[in-house]
Amino acid sequence: MTADELIIATCLKAGKIMVENGSEISRVDDTMMRIAQNAGVISANTYVTITGVMMSIQGRNATQIMAINKRTIDLEKVAQVNQLSREFAASAIDLPTLHQRLNTLDAASRSFPLWLQLVGAALVSGPLMIMFRQEIVNTWPTVVIGTLGYLVFYLLNRYLKIKFLSELVAALIIGFGAEWAVQIGWGTNVNDIIIGSLMPLVPGVPLTNAVRDTLAGNFVSGPARGVEALISAAALGFGIAVVITLS
Amino acid sequence: MNIIGQLILAYVAVLGFGLIINIPHQALNLAGWIGTLTWGSYLIVQAFDGGVVFGSLIGSVGIGVLSSMAARYKKMPAIIFNIPSLVSFVPGSQAYQMVRNFALGNYRQAVGFTLQLVMITGAIALGFLLAELLNRLIAFCTLRWRLAHPDR
């Protein structure tokens, strides 16, 4: 690999990891340019969208594209790329080491285990239900059904790999679970239980990134993320609407 | 007591969402505090009858400014702090009531909730814009201050 190729490969790898794991576009752009500048390239061009990253070095025969097919949410990886880029800028590591570290990071699986995510889902659903509805009677059903809904979403998303379908099924499970909890007398209010249980599935990252990308002037990626958030919200809404219509 | 309870719940909820989207462990506590502080400012607006929309605007401005400060302090991307702290401001209740009323055929109420949803979401987006403006202003002022007092 020549020096130019290594620079481009490193920048593209960093960009790919960041987009795949839920960073906003302007930060990806910034990080790639910083790595290129610290590697000694002054006039690099990057073009980042949420489905692919491109980079070229002006005046030299070096341009490459990296496609991005899957997108998950793992902000720890984004922070780690940021950290590696800072270390490279401070000359603590050299370019081949950076490239190798990025490859290791890309291959690593999620560092937060499933049970911790389930604890997170439980912590989100119960407290938010109390905050929104100002009542504590339905807390335990909300916590249990919210955790169950997130578990269903996680497992389906892992094996089916269709995010919107997983959200739809999770919403169905949450809706029927809430109806069931009220029917056996465990909870008292279906609406409150559903509102709380849905909160862990809210598309917070796409929504926030859609706003930030659009405001930063990335009119390709911002609206695209907005559509992603909208379809997720619609999938959750359809699931709940089916339950409400049936019961 | 009720207000203190709400603040504790806001902290817990932000922590939970941080666990779901896997933010670094070192950032969890700070993100929780940002969520607590901004929910406190929302509650203050509510206490003066400011309404949900204005409360969300103030909250999201606070989230934007505080996250950027936290990002500079911890040397991490700002989204690590502002996505989890935003979770208490998500209009989940209104979104659910909109879907429910559409499904039941109560279109008049459903449209009312849709408008509320659009207003709140718009307020949050506007809040981020204002926060960006404030962040630039703060950065500019610190730069000028550093240039004027190079010895500190």
UniProtKB/TrEMBL annotation, chain A:
Its main location: membrane. It holds the Pfam family ThrE. The keyword Membrane applies. InterPro entries: ThrE-like_N, ThrE_Dicarb/AminoAcid_Exp. It is found in: Cell membrane. One of its GO terms (biological process) is succinate transport. The chain crosses the membrane at residues 112-132, 138-156, 168-186, 229-246. Residues 10-246 form the Threonine/serine exporter-like N-terminal domain. One of its GO terms (molecular function) is transmembrane transporter activity. It comes from the Bacteria. It is a multi-pass membrane protein. Keywords: Cell membrane, Membrane, Transmembrane, Transmembrane helix. One of its GO terms (cellular component) is plasma membrane. Belongs to the ThrE exporter (TC 2.A.79) family. This is Threonine/serine exporter. It comes from Lactiplantibacillus garii.
TrEMBL record, chain B:
It holds the Pfam family ThrE_2. GO terms for cellular component: plasma membrane. The keyword Membrane applies. One of its GO terms (biological process) is succinate transport. InterPro entries: ThrE_2 (IPR024528), ThrE_Dicarb/AminoAcid_Exp (IPR050539). Belongs to the ThrE exporter (TC 2.A.79) family. This is Threonine/serine exporter. Residues 6-133 form the Threonine/Serine exporter ThrE domain. It is a multi-pass membrane protein. It comes from the Bacteria.
